[in-house]
């Protein structure tokens, strides 16, 4: 796909917000594809994520001491901290032209809050199988719905999230069954020879604030921003029924700018399985 003259891609910056346990690195292949299409992008590391994320003290040690019980070093990270990281990037790129804010999965919370606080910094917001808090304020409110009953990965979290201050998983688990459940939940269509690379880059802790903190949106601010939902058709982590529920509830709550919905084949992680197709859809 080649941008047509006057398409505006060369004056558009995509601000990319990752989901749970990931980091800015998840977008690298998509960013390379976007550059080939004439679009600039910048990926955000939310606090406590990315290659600089602090780890539980026993995470890399033999026997994994304390992995199920040690309080997370990210327990004090707040939703405000994460929204501020998005806002900082939005402010820095705004001078370059049109800004499209893209959020994946749990990244929908801080991205939505940032857009609510500074709607003039965002020309469009795109949810890639991401949490939309317009209908219900917490990500957990959607994970507890009947529509989410078919979701995989319910056995991946370790320990008590309330005591840990985080939703903790074990990407480096030596248990083949656990690793296979992680693959089936998030990466079932990622080439097999790449899956171990992807899981080894994941962080174990998601600050509990991201799925648990209510995000309040208003029609006058977030609701006035044009919005798109990229619906992952074979998503096993956030089933299509939940995606459709979030879309419908948001459009009922704030009908002024209803969602434009596009379909992507495959899993919850198209940036791993089909980054070029994702980039082309964003560019369109």
Automatic annotation (TrEMBL):
Cite the AB hydrolase-1 domain residue spans from the record: 14-280
Q: Does the keyword Oxidoreductase apply?
A: no
Q: Name one GO molecular function term.
A: hydrolase activity
**Superkingdom to which the source organism belongs:** Bacteria
Keywords recorded for this protein, A-Z: Hydrolase
Q: Which PANTHER family match?
A: AB HYDROLASE-1 DOMAIN-CONTAINING PROTEIN-RELATED, ESTERASE_LIPASE_THIOESTERASE DOMAIN-CONTAINING PROTEIN
What is the recorded name of this protein?
A: Alpha/beta fold hydrolase
């Amino acid at each position: 796909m080649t941008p047509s003259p006057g398409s505006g891609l060369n004056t558009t910056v995509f601000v990319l917000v990752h989901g749970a346990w990931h980091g800015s690195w998840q977008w690298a292949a998509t960013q390379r594809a976007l550059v080939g299409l004439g679009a600039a992008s910048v990926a955000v590391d939310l606090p406590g994520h990315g290659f600089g994320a602090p780890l539980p003290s026993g995470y890399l040690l033999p026997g994994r001491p304390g992995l199920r019980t040690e309080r997370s070093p990210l327990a004090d990270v707040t939703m405000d901290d994460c929204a501020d990281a998005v806002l900082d990037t939005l402010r820095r790129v705004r001078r370059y032209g049109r800004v499209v804010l893209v959020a994946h999965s749990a990244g929908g919370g801080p991205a939505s809050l940032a857009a609510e606080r500074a709607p003039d910094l965002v020309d469009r917001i795109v949810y890639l199988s991401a949490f939309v808090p317009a209908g219900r304020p917490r990500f957990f409110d959607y994970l507890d719905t009947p529509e989410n009953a078919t979701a995989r990965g319910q056995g991946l979290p370790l320990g008590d999230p309330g005591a840990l201050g985080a939703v903790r998983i074990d990407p480096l688990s030596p248990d083949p069954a656990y690793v296979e459940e992680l693959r089936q939940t998030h990466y079932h269509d990622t080439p097999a020879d790449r899956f171990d690379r992807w899981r080894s880059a994941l962080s174990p802790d998601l600050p509990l604030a991201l799925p648990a903190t209510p995000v309040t949106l208003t029609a006058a601010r977030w609701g006035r921003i044009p919005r798109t939902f990229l619906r992952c058709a074979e998503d096993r982590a956030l089933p299509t029924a939940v995606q459709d529920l979030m879309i419908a509830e948001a459009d009922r709550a704030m009908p002024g700018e209803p969602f434009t919905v596009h379909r992507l084949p495959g899993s919850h992680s198209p940036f791993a399985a089909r980054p070029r197709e994702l980039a082309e859809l964003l560019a369109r």
